[in-house]
Amino acid sequence: MDSVNETIDGRVEDLVALTQDLIRFPTINPPGEAYRPCAEYIGERLKKRGFTVEYVRGVGTPGDSDRYPRTNVIARKEGGKPGPCVHFNGHIDVVEVGDGWTLDPFEGIVKDGKVYGRGACDMKGGIASAIIAAEALIDTLPDFPGAIEISGTVDEESGGYGGVAYLAERGWFSKPRVDHVIIPEPLNVDRVCIGHRGVWWAEIETKGRIAHGSMPFLGDSAIRHMSAVLERFENDLYPALEARQSNMPVVPDGARSSTMNINSLHGGQEEGHEGLPAPCVADSCRMIIDRRFLIEEDIDDVRSEIRSILEKLSETRPDFRFDMRELFAVEPSLADKDAPVASTTAAAIRDVLKREAEFVCSPGTYDQKHVDRIGKLKDCIAYGPGVLDLAHQPDEWVGIDDMVAAAKVMALTTARLLGAVK
To answer: pLDDT tens digits, the chain, 422 residues: what are they?
Structure first.
């Protein structure tokens, strides 16, 4: 593998340029900007390297339209003889830019050994590392057995329905087509991520009765009812969640407990001209919650825990009425650290970086959930360059040295999984 590593070392400028080019596609989700041109850029590059390239649109999935088509790219390179398939999957979508940037988020600026931009860390640097690793391996060991696949998929940041979920439902992430999957999410170059916590998103609505704001006693404020919900969350739910601890190696440490974030709160009528309020009692108040749960918890218990709080309020608080609607649910996922892809990646980290790998789990979900649950393929991990804490932050960046190191680990892992080297 020394020759493969030397090849990667000789392509650092190409690796950086590829990362910059990917960042320059503003693939913001929502709404799903620039998906197709970014997918075609990846496809055209790999086609020139002998990959068979296909584009698959997630027709009818959330957000898909002729203006914002959910375009995925899947490229496959067959080796010199039969063998297993190693698949690298990276999502091309990025979150909105947000405030606080000091650099152009879509310029791909290189500074102090880092490439800056929205998606640099999460996860276009990882996609670039995987492509460079595959190309170096193919050029150095052209008669490798088996097959290498690389995909650029969409909508991971909004659940992955138009990307990996859509493809998994159609057999793209199942045996016998694919045997091992590596997702280059930014978990640090010396970590192997073997799973993630579960997620449950829901909308809670409290209901009231509209009346004139000067006579609120004639109405019933849905906002005040929601304040009672918040009080129960603070006094009862949050302490209970903090007391629960997982045996999964979730990072950072705070995510070893169950958590819940209140994503948004909307109550009353919209403000009118020049921001003046509507003189009315709020007859509706809506809250969106993001509940992250542990593998030791049952998803039905997660649902019933929230509903129980609301039902008790219905019994004890006069005129309390509510609706609850589930928005999204994913169970935790956990791969075996002794399975082929996890153990082989850990060994490659030890050989390339000269230190032991750390097995971790992600605090949030990523597309492993669809490979596992829909594709029924358990041999799937996340491994890639980038610092997890930088994801979705202003001035997001990925280190060039980390991308080079990750590419070497990916190349060695692939060669060993395919049986090209020991």
So the answer is: 789 999 999 999 999 999 999 999 999 999 999 999 999 999 999 999 999 999 999 999 999 999 999 999 999 999 999 999 999 999 999 999 999 999 999 999 999 999 999 999 999 999 999 999 999 999 999 999 999 999 999 999 999 999 999 999 999 999 999 999 999 999 899 999 999 999 999 999 999 999 999 999 999 999 999 999 999 999 999 999 999 999 999 999 999 999 999 999 999 998 877 788 889 999 999 999 999 999 999 999 999 999 999 999 999 999 999 999 999 999 999 999 999 999 999 999 999 999 999 999 999 899 999 999 999 999 999 999 999 889 999 999 999 999 999 999 999 999 999 998 87
Give the tokens for residue 39: 């997918």
Spacing of C-alpha 259 from chain mean position = 18
DSSP string, 173-207: TSTTT-SEEEE--SS-TTEEEEEE-EEEEEEEEEE
122, 135, 156, 205: which one is catalytic?
A: 156
- The CATH number, out of the four listed (3.40.50.720, 3.40.640.10, 3.30.70.360, 3.90.1700.10), of the domain defined by the range 198-330: 3.30.70.360
- Does 338 participate in catalysis according to the annotation? no
Q: Which two tokens stand for residue 170?
A: 């159609």
Q: Are 92 and 58 spatial neighbours (Cβ–Cβ below 8 Å)?
A: no
Is residue 157 flagged as an active site residue?
Answer: no
Of the listed 64, 93, 135, 297, which one is catalytic? 93
Alpha helix (H) residue ranges in 32-118: 35-48
User: Which has the closest alpha carbon to 46: 148, 131, 154, 123?
Assistant: 131
pTM of the predicted protein model? 0.91
What's 281-350 look like in SS3? CCCEEEEEEEEEECCCCCHHHHHHHHHHHHHHHHHHCCCCEEEEEEEEEECCEECCCCCHHHHHHHHHHH
Helix (H, G, I), strand (E, B) or coil at 4: helix
Tokens standing for residue 344: 């082989």
Question: Residue ranges of the domains in the chain?
Answer: 2-196+332-418, 198-330
The domain made up of 2-196+332-418 has a fold known as: Aminopeptidase (3.40.630)
